[in-house]
């Protein structure tokens, strides 16, 4: 995703959504490493405030490490898989239903709520992705649409409180102990949590 100034909440939500939906490409990694992350970091710092400092420093440290590691693209892809594609007993999963049902099932009430929202907003879930509608990335894409809509069906703050803050902090805590080579994705999750907390207070 090409980041252009001026940024705003919709762009930030789309960026978050992209990070959590698929692995970074080599092109994205190279772009971040030559200053492409700077504008985004400044916007996140402005939107979040002091809680952004630690995660942003961690990400910037990773950007430097990527440039020195020939296998960084594969290692980062392995990190993504460990955090967002794992399944089985005791793993964390990026779906609201997983948390509303105590880890027992997917495609539950949050999925159906999100499916209705996405349909009403004219957003379609990529059938090739085979992901439930309550995947974190789909929720963030919908949130971006709320920020862009002139007459949204619900306020962004309402959606954040009702559908995101109910489970994203728990997911963030659950992935924290997962071993990864880089801290990039975990740091972005920390930024997302702080961003959502700040956004929810703006109502």
Automatic annotation (TrEMBL):
Keywords: Chaperone
GO biological process: protein complex oligomerization
Keyword tRNA-binding: no
Superkingdom of origin: Bacteria
Pfam families: Nitrate_red_del
PANTHER family tied to this protein: CHAPERONE PROTEIN TORD, CHAPERONE PROTEIN YCDY
Protein name: Chaperone protein TorD
Organism of derivation: Pseudovibrio exalbescens
């Amino acid at each position: 995703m090409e980041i252009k100034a001026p940024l705003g909440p919709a762009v930030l939500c789309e960026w978050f959504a992209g990070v959590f939906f698929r692995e970074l490409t080599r092109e994205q990694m190279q772009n971040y490493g030559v200053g492409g992350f700077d504008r985004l970091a400044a916007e996140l710092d402005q939107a979040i405030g002091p809680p952004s400092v630690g995660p942003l420093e961690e990400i910037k440290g990773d950007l430097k490490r990527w440039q020195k590691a020939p296998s960084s693209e594969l290692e980062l892809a392995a990190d993504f898989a460990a955090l967002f594609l794992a399944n089985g007993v005791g793993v964390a999963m990026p779906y609201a239903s997983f948390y509303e049902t105590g880890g027992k099932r997917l495609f539950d009430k949050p999925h159906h709520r999100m499916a209705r929202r996405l349909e009403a907003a004219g957003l379609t879930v990529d059938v090739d992705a085979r992901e439930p509608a309550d995947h974190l990335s789909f929720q963030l894409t919908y949130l971006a649409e709320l920020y862009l809509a002139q007459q949204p069906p619900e306020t962004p703050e309402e959606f954040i409180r009702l559908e995101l803050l109910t489970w994203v902090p728990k997911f963030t805590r659950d992935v924290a102990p997962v071993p990864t080579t880089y801290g990039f994705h975990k740091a972005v999750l920390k930024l997302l949590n702080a961003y959502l907390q700040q956004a929810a207070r703006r109502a």
